Amino acid sequence: MGFFKKLFGGNQKKSSEQEEKKTSEYNLKWINPEQNPWGLKILDLRPISQNMLSTSKDPKMATNAISYGQEDGTAFTEYSPKSKRTFSSDLTISTDEKLEEGVLFNPSTMENKWAIYFINDRLLFIRSWLREAFVVAKTTQEKNQLRITEITGEFTDNESSKMTESILMFLLYSHSLNETVPAPIPKDLSSNTDQAGMWAFSTYGNMAHFGYFGEDFNYKTALKLRTHSLLHIAIARGELDKINLELDRNTNINCLAGDGLSTLQWAITADSNVLSLLLDKGANPNTKSTEGATPIMNAVQSNKVEHLNILIENKADINAKDNRGFTALHRASEMGHKEIVRILLENGADKNVEAESHTPLSLAIAMKNKEIINLLEK
Predict the structure, then answer these.
(1) Which of 71, 142, 338, 373 has the fewest other C-beta atoms within 10 Å?
(2) Which domain of life is it from (predicted)?
């Protein structure tokens, strides 16, 4: 996002209008292909999408819009779109190993217009204010690829099947992968930028920073699609029965969530019996996040002594390094966790490991923590 901040400026202050213009002109600017990473002529939608708040006179819609905090998607299992238009598709998107059932995006504000779930091998696109399924897509998986084979429904009235596919992929990229990519807008709106901007805000909310007028943009990314799996959610809630149910359904016990953290790393925030259950069921104590962190590092960072001891008892690698070369002892020394520093040293932590010119001792010195300095100098 540094590119966009430099080229187009930072965040702008929001207004409180009900998705209405303050004036007759929003002054949306065109950006030429040579001025952006996608090589498209795009429209800067941010004067609308990042300035405007959504409100509703209907209290039910307002309630629906912010009702997804505890939603795992299973409530929508039997939902089907009002539009029964169905067509075959051959879209694909890369996944991080097998895509597990769970949440791909939960809306958190009224400016988030969609909730997205992966349940029963189907992608469910739920209009947030209505809590209705607008589009459902059947899928298959093979070789770390999710293939969309059939799509039922439509995102907007009377859109072409190509537009449905284009919106579907934009929602996965922008909502599930948190990528800034141009949002598709109908070509017949290109002559009226204000109308196009309002259409985009109504359809995509604050997730559309830029728009393009077409249906055939083939975006590529190195990011891999992951859910907050039902297993992760059960772990966060401490629901042992549901954890066992998900494992009985062959959910990958070592899968990573959408935030890049493993099941054991989510278990650090739960009761220690959740962590013990997962380890007893065969979870790898040395699973790494997308940033290379291990569960033992998360236990250290959260100052969870009991969780740390359970991981050590289960042969977790105390001297594992993250992607930057830092160890658990680096973290404990910098954060001032004296008891954890002592436990790590007693169990063989290497106090001489250097990462980005820092050792655990140099970090303790920088933080002026005399007790930890003494432990490391022994």
Answers:
(1) 142
(2) Bacteria
- Closest by Cα among 205, 184, 185 to 195: 185
Is 131 domain-assigned?
A: yes
Pick the last residue of a domain from 194, 212, 230. Answer: 212
- What's the pTM value of the predicted model, to 2 decimals? 0.91
Q: Report the chain's terminal Cα–Cα distance, integer Å.
A: 45
Task: Domain count for the chain, please give it.
Answer: 2
> Of the candidates 43, 47, 46, which has an alpha carbon nearest to the alpha carbon of residue 30?
43
Distance, CA of 242 to CA of 76 (rounded, Å): 18
Same domain, 208 and 340: no
Cα dihedral 73, 74, 78, 83, rounded to 10, equals 0
69 and 203 housed in the same domain: yes
The set of residues, in sequence order, having a beta carbon less than 8 Å from that of 220 and lying 6+ positions away, is none
Residue 32, in any domain of the structure: yes
**Tens digits of per-residue pLDDT, 241-254?**
999 999 999 999 99
Last residue of a domain, one of 182, 212, 242: 212
Q: What is the DSSP letter of 150?
A: E
- Find the angle CA(67)-CA(168)-CA(105) to the nearest 5 degrees: 30
Of 78, 72, 69, 55, which is closest to residue 129 (Cα–Cα)?
Answer: 55
Q: E-assigned strands of 204-287? A: 210-212, 228-229
To which residue do tokens 């307002």 refer?
62
Who contacts 290 (Cβ-Cβ below 8 Å, separation ≥6)?
Answer: 256, 260
* Range of the structural domain that residue 177 is part of: 23-212
pLDDT at 10: 43
Structure tokens at 358: 């820092």
Other CB atoms within 10 Å distance of the CB of residue 32: 10
Going by their DSSP bridges, the two strands 86-94 and 183-184 should be labelled as unpaired
Structural domain includes residue 221: no
Summarize pLDDT for 74-133 with one digit per residue, the tens: 999 999 999 999 999 999 999 999 999 999 999 999 999 999 999 999 999 999 999 999
